[in-house]
Amino acid sequence: MSSDRSDLISAPAQAQADVQRCTPNLPGFTCGLDATLRVVSGKWKPLILYFVAQDGPTRYGELRRAIRDVSDKVLIQQLKELEADGLVKRTDYKEVPPRVDYSLTPLGQSLAEALVPLCTWGTEHMAEVSRVFAERATWTRPGRQPTG
Amino acid sequence: MSSDRSDLISAPAQAQADVQRCTPNLPGFTCGLDATLRVVSGKWKPLILYFVAQDGPTRYGELRRAIRDVSDKVLIQQLKELEADGLVKRTDYKEVPPRVDYSLTPLGQSLAEALVPLCTWGTEHMAEVSRVFAERATWTRPGRQPTG
DNA sequence: TTGGGTACTTACCAAAAGGTGCATACTTGT
DNA sequence: ACAAGTATGCACCTTTTGGTAAGTACCCAA
C-alpha cells in the first residue's frame, strides 16, 4: 500500500546494476539523466553538438547551411541556450562583416562523448526504430493501432 | 563556398573520433542519435525506462505514484508510445479489477544501458548544470544576460 | 544603386506537448 | 449504499516549441 517499494526486484541483471547509478532525488533534477536531457533537448541541439564536435570551431553560417531545415531564429536560440548552459563557446571576432564561431567547451566535449552510446544504440537499432515509426505514421498521432 | 566541408578539422581529439561514429545520412533520421532521441523524448519517458529497468515489471499504479507529478493522461500516453516503439511490454492480466504491468523488452533494456553514460554525465556535472539553470531563471526565457 | 553575404533580432503564428477533470466498468471494504 | 481503487478514455485548455517573414547594420562586387 505504501508508495515506497523497498522490495528489490528480479530485473534484467547487470543492466540493472548500471542503471542503479542513476540515483534520483537530487537538487532540482530527478536524476542525472533528467539534468542531461534538459540540456540537450531542443530539436537541433544534438546535431549542433555533433557538427561542432566533428568540425571544431564552426561559423554560424556553416552550421546554418550544414544543418539545413533549421531556421535562423531557432538555430540562434539553441546556440544561445547551449552557450548559456556552458556547452559551447561563442567567439565574436568583432570584424566588420560579422564573424563569429562556435566551439565546444570541455563540458560540451564531455557531453558529446556521453552521447556516443546513444548514437550507437540508434544506429544499431535504426531498422527496428524506423520500422515502428513507419507504422506509427498510419495512425498519425493518438492511439489507434492496426491490432483490431 | 560549397556546403560540403570535406576538409577535416583540428577538433578535440579522441572525442572527435568517437563522435565520428554517429554518421549522419541515413533513412529517415539524420543519425543514430536522432533516432534515439525521437524514441526517448517525452517528459517522462526516461524516468519510466528508469523505474521499469530497476523494478522490473511494474504496475501502472506503481509507476503513477512513483513518478509523481505526471498526470494519468500523459503517463498512459508515454507508456503507449514506448510500447509502440517496442521498448516496453504491456501485460494485461485480464483480471477484473484491472491489472496491468509494464516491463522492458530487450530493446528497451539495451536503451536503458545506453542511457547510463548520460545519467553519469548528468550526475557528475549536476552542479554546473543547476547553477546555470538557476541563473537562467532570472531572465525567465529570452536572451537577457546579466552581462551588461 | 542594386544585390548578396555576415550574424543576428523581432513580431506574429501554428503545432506539439503536457495538464485538468470528468467518465467508465467493475470490485472490495465499511 | 457509498467511497475507494484499478487502468484507462476523452474533451478542453495552456504552455512550450518551432517556424515564417521581415528588418538591421555593415561591407563588397557588379
TrEMBL record, chains A, B:
Keyword list, A-Z: DNA-binding, Transcription, Transcription regulation
Gene3D superfamilies recorded: Winged helix-like DNA-binding domain superfamily/Winged helix DNA-binding domain (1.10.10.10)
Pfam families associated with the record: HxlR (PF01638)
The keyword Transcription belongs to this UniProt entry's keyword annotation: yes
Molecular function GO terms recorded: DNA binding
Highest taxon listed in the record's lineage: Bacteria
UniProt key word Cell membrane: no
All residue ranges annotated as the HTH hxlR-type domain in the record: 31-130
InterPro entries, per the entry: HTH_HxlR, WH-like_DNA-bd_sf, WH_DNA-bd_sf
PANTHER family linked to this entry: TRANSCRIPTIONAL REGULATOR (PTHR33204:SF29), TRANSCRIPTIONAL REGULATOR, MARR FAMILY (PTHR33204)
Name of the protein in question: Transcriptional regulator, HxlR family
